[in-house]
Specification:
Strands 2-3-1-4-6-5 form a six-stranded mixed β-sheet, sandwiched between helices. The longest helix is centred in the middle third of the chain and has 18 residues, at 89-106. It is of the alpha+beta class. The protein has nine helices and ten strands.
Length: 269
């Protein structure tokens, strides 16, 4: 089974987000929307659902009208394929390459690949300058821009909103948080600032770990889980802290799959 965690550059037009999400049908597991980031994260299962969401996004959104605090290169901004259960990283890489070839040729959206070749932050810094597109036309699509298409392991996207802090402090904290297991940005989000993180190895460094580390540097207003969390990460977290950390059993990947009659098949050990 392959999970696809699609980041689109729209977090304010709820009607457009609903139309885009509906395109995935029963394979849609979750939608997380943030109006300040002006971004939504749609978690779907399988390549067919990812393509349906891509078509709906390119039809509905115009990145030229986009204004949000989160970095982006396109309307269909990031499309990572994630192996689950018995699926392998080779399966995710093959799906990535098929999707990028299709998106470039059928919809005319240039794609930059990430995974073993390069990291997603490298694409954000070097698209159309350091790097040429791997598929599709050499210039951005007139309304959709470009897309970063990747293959990666499961991660947890996690935001910590700071109390009584300014942007410079959030950026300094983000810099201190960065390590092989954690990517972090300090962002101004409305009247607050935020340390926005991707926990790349959430079993090793999970929500509780980064919450406690940031709390030593600044007062935290609240935590925010973006999308879903693996059950293994939830099980490794003290249940007494679930509410504080914004995690819960019904927000696990496994629970959402079960709601749709899907189960993960794990390979024998």
């Amino acid at each position: 089974m392959l999970e696809c965690v699609i980041n689109i550059s729209e977090g304010q037009n709820l009607g457009a987000i609903e139309v885009i999400g509906r395109a995935a049908g029963r394979e849609l597991l979750d939608v997380h929307t943030d109006p300040d980031h002006h971004r939504s994260v749609l978690t779907v299962v399988g390549e067919e659902a990812a393509r349906a969401v891509a078509i709906a996004t390119v039809l509905a959104l115009d990145v030229r009208r986009h204004d949000g605090v989160h970095p982006r290169i396109g309307a269909l901004d990031v499309v990572p394929f994630v192996p689950l259960g018995s699926a392998s990283m080779d399966d995710a890489l093959a799906a990535r390459d098929r999707f990028a070839g299709w998106l470039g040729s059928e919809l005319g959206v240039p794609c930059f690949l990430y995974g073993p070749e390069r990291a997603l932050p490298d694409i954000r810094k070097g698209a159309f300058s350091t790097f040429s597109p791997d598929t599709g036309p050499p210039k951005p699509h007139p309304t959709a821009g470009a897309c970063a298409v990747g293959a990666r392991p499961v991660l947890v996207a996690y935001n910590l909103w700071l109390e009584k802090a300014v942007l410079a402090e959030a950026r300094a904290i983000a810099a201190q948080m960065r390590r092989p297991e954690v990517r972090a940005l300090g962002l101004q989000v409305g009247d607050y600032v935020q340390v926005s993180m991707n926990l790349l190895d959430p079993v090793v460094v999970g929500p509780a770990d980064v919450f406690d580390q940031v709390s030593e540097l600044a007062e935290i207003d609240r935590a925010e889980l973006v999308g879903l969390i693996p059950r293994s990460v939830l099980d490794a977290t003290d249940p007494d802290r679930w509410q504080q950390l914004d995690v819960a059993p019904d927000r696990t990947l496994e629970a959402r799959l079960a709601d749709r009659g899907m189960t993960l098949v794990t390979p024998p050990s």
